[in-house]
Design a protein that fits this description.
Layout: E1 18-20, E2 30-33, E3 38-44, E4 47-52, E5 59-67, E6 69-74, E7 82-85, E8 89-93, E9 98-102, E10 106-114, H1 115-119, H2 140-152, H3 159-183, H4 194-205, H5 213-219, H6 224-232, H7 238-254, H8 264-270, H9 276-285, H10 291-296
Parallel strand pairs: 1-4
Antiparallel strand pairs: 2-3, 3-10, 4-9, 5-8, 5-10, 6-7, 6-9
Helix pairs in contact: 3-4, 4-7, 8-9
Length: about 325
């Protein structure tokens, strides 16, 4: 594995190695543009570039490394280099000035979103201790697999599907930053509880109908019984939380006029349920009116904090009631 050296004199770099605000800009990539986010996948030979600050809306670029390695350093001090190998990730902001270098045969997924979209999840976008995502992340693998599946899709999504996928992509990126704030990416790490890691993973994947207690336990590398005990200590269960977050997603869809083109059965599938009957049963269990009534009584007020916003503050042990 080899790297091209960082450009040694950024002030006299040739134009081909200077990029404004976006990593790997101008290179061939698979791309999917959603409502608020853009997902790209690159297959690269060894290279290096300077990513210069850009104006406009502040954007954060999440870089997930599937193969090879990527390293990043501030332009003002190339010695402060951080490296993400395969299975890890880093981020950079469009208004920062960084040097990037990557190895041969690097496969990289870049998800770009406005900073205010990510900040809405309550986690800081802070690179003072290095712009790396958590090294022992339970979310990077599933997130990267999800983004690959989006890019591998044979058909481009329609307007409604594009909006739904954009919301799910926002939640996945928001969960990475939330997890990073909880775990820490620097030399000193604070291990979050199994309950909190599982809840973040459920929030990121609640729309996936394949998500279940066994798959959740497998992705967290624990037994299903151990996972059940962690939730029992909080007075709940993984099954209950999966259902609760799916109900909240369905309520969001039913309360949004942009989803009026969807039938109740389609809403149930977008929210991770197997059928409209499953959705109705879940609504009854959680004390919600019927899906049809929720849609008819669309609220004009701002939606309550839901999904990832329902995660407890760092250091808290219980989920805030919704």
């Amino acid at each position: 594995m080899s790297y091209e050296r960082y450009p040694s004199a950024p002030g006299v770099m040739p134009p081909s190695t200077r990029r404004s605000g976006e990593p790997f800009s101008g290179r061939s990539a698979q791309m999917l543009a959603l409502e608020t986010v853009v997902v790209k996948r690159y297959a690269l030979a060894a290279g290096a570039e300077r990513v210069m600050p850009a104006g406009g809306v502040p954007v954060v670029h999440s870089v997930l490394v599937s193969a090879g390695s990527v390293s990043i350093a501030p332009t003002v001090d190339a010695r402060r280099r951080h490296r993400a190998d395969a299975g890890r990730g880093l981020f950079l902001r469009s208004r920062s000035d960084h040097l990037l270098a990557w190895s041969d045969d690097a496969e990289i997924i870049v998800v770009s979103a406005p900073e205010d979209v990510v900040a809405a999840f309550g986690a800081p976008i802070d690179d003072s201790d290095g712009p790396l995502f958590a090294g022992d992340s339970a979310l990077l693998g599933p997130a990267a697999a999800y983004f690959r599946s989006l890019l591998d899709g044979a058909a481009r999504p329609g307007r409604v599907a594009r909006y739904a996928l954009s919301r799910l992509t926002e939640e996945m990126i928001g969960s990475l930053f939330l997890e990073r704030a909880s775990v820490g990416a620097g030399p000193v790490k604070v291990q979050p509880s199994l309950y909190r890691r599982a809840l973040a993973l459920i929030a990121a994947r609640r729309a996936d109908p394949e998500l279940s207690v066994p798959t959740l336990a497998t992705e967290l590398a624990v037994s299903a019984r151990h996972l059940q005990r962690a939730f029992a200590e909080q007075g709940t269960s993984p099954t209950e939380e999966i259902r609760r977050l799916r109900v909240e997603l369905a309520v969001q869809l039913l309360g949004d006029a942009r989803y009026d083109v969807l039938s109740i059965d389609e809403v149930s599938r977008y929210a991770g349920f197997g059928s409209a009957d499953d959705l109705r049963r879940a609504f009854r269990l959680h004390g919600e009116p019927s899906p049809t009534r929720v849609r008819a009584q669309r609220r004009s007020a701002r939606p309550e904090r839901r999904g990832l916003h329902a995660l407890p503050p760092l250091g808290a042990t219980q989920v805030a009631p919704v």
